[in-house]
Amino acid sequence: MDLDLAPVDRAPTYELVISRLKNEIFAGRLRAGDRLPGERQLSEQLGVSRASVREAIRALQALEIVNARPGNGPTSGLIMTARPRIALSNLLRLHVGLASYSVADLMAVRVSLEAQAVTTLVAKDHIDLDGLHALLDRMAAPGVTPDEAQDLDAQFHLSLASQADNPLLADMMQALRDAIATSMLDAFRAQPDWPAFAAGIVAEHRAIVDALEARDGALAVRLMRDHVEAFYDAVADRIEPGATGATAAIGDPEA
Amino acid sequence: MDLDLAPVDRAPTYELVISRLKNEIFAGRLRAGDRLPGERQLSEQLGVSRASVREAIRALQALEIVNARPGNGPTSGLIMTARPRIALSNLLRLHVGLASYSVADLMAVRVSLEAQAVTTLVAKDHIDLDGLHALLDRMAAPGVTPDEAQDLDAQFHLSLASQADNPLLADMMQALRDAIATSMLDAFRAQPDWPAFAAGIVAEHRAIVDALEARDGALAVRLMRDHVEAFYDAVADRIEPGATGATAAIGDPEA
């Protein structure tokens, strides 16, 4: 008589290691900033080969869950990551590249988050208006280049998100910005009348800051939506993926 | 004379392989649904060991950029992933576990995205109102359990996001839901008067659907915000991480 045995369904060992480490995180026993035991110690504790531990850790590094810090001190080694900004950015950028998401999709989500940020801000006692105006002064300076303006524009929007005291909101905003950074820069560079275009962006930003100062949330939200949507309409043909695919790799934080 | 040479700064080979594959994505030469060459072919083309190729692919699998499909047919093998829902969920859940984000952070972002979804929906000619009412009928059925209600609640909110025709919005919503799914279920189960609590949720959902049917976007957004925030206020002490850390692993899609 022949036995009719189905194959044993067994995940690769490194996946079991990942699963065990994830459960430690979900259970709150591994927190951001904690240091993982070394490869040998993990291998002994878990009863698996060092190769399996290494593979698991590489996968967690790809997810930006674990960061390797050089050196031998107490803050070196494999540290649990505090914020997945780069992982989020990478994921979004890759999926714009894979055409899972269009730039229009990203813009619509960005508008929602920007609206959330300014709504939160107008409810706060203190807003760093001086910091925002200082960024806009730099952006309004004669001779500002598209590259400088793109960077200052990012800082302006990220400052609003950061001041809203919601790290997920700020990280999402950063990721969405990063995902379209090179496309935006291409669009800036292609403007036939760059100084006028830059001045328009600064004026729209100033109006948003004024609305924040007046604690007029509805106006600030409306101005922000108009600002992002007008920008997108003006440059949509240049920032859709495909149009800029060849240069998008420049901004790859891991390239 | 001794030469004083600094060490060569060289990324591990598997990282170079990842970088090359990412650049193919950014350049639009690898799209969702495409099949990667096999391990041997990649190893020959890139001039690296098969072990390096394997490590790179495992890291890309951890990021849900590549999916392994079993079998030998034309749709099997290593396929470029179409949607990073699971990767986004994992990332958010892990970072709730790592205490990078609080459930309050997630809820605030979720409210923004829900508002975006209903705003988009009221501008559409067709909304699947019947489908939404059918879900609510099932949620209003006598004897509905917290587990069933949680699932139906998720389907309701995801249906709104999906109908907004923005895959990123839908994927973010799914990821945010997944990240707090077990915490929400704990909160449902702990309600002292579950039938009344469930009826309240259904009534709030019905009001949102009515506002959508009337194409009253402002009302729909307000009702949605009130609904999510009221729910959060009612159960906040149960769904903050730490309170539910021990059970959160149950819902791990990879556990």
Automatic annotation (TrEMBL), chains A, B:
Keyword Transcription: yes
Keyword DNA-binding annotated: yes
Domain HTH gntR-type residues, every copy: 11-83
SMART domains: FCD (SM00895), HTH_GNTR (SM00345)
InterPro entries associated with the record: GntR_C, TF_FadR/GntR_C, Tscrpt_reg_HTH_GntR, WH-like_DNA-bd_sf, WH_DNA-bd_sf
Keywords: DNA-binding, Transcription, Transcription regulation
Listed Pfam families: FCD, GntR
Gene Ontology MF: a single term: DNA binding
PROSITE patterns attached to this UniProt entry: HTH_GNTR (PS50949)
PANTHER family noted in UniProt: TRANSCRIPTIONAL REGULATOR, GNTR FAMILY (PTHR43537), UXU OPERON TRANSCRIPTIONAL REGULATOR (PTHR43537:SF5)
Protein name as annotated: GntR family transcriptional regulator
Biological classification of the source: Bacteria, Bacillati, Actinomycetota, Actinomycetes, Streptosporangiales
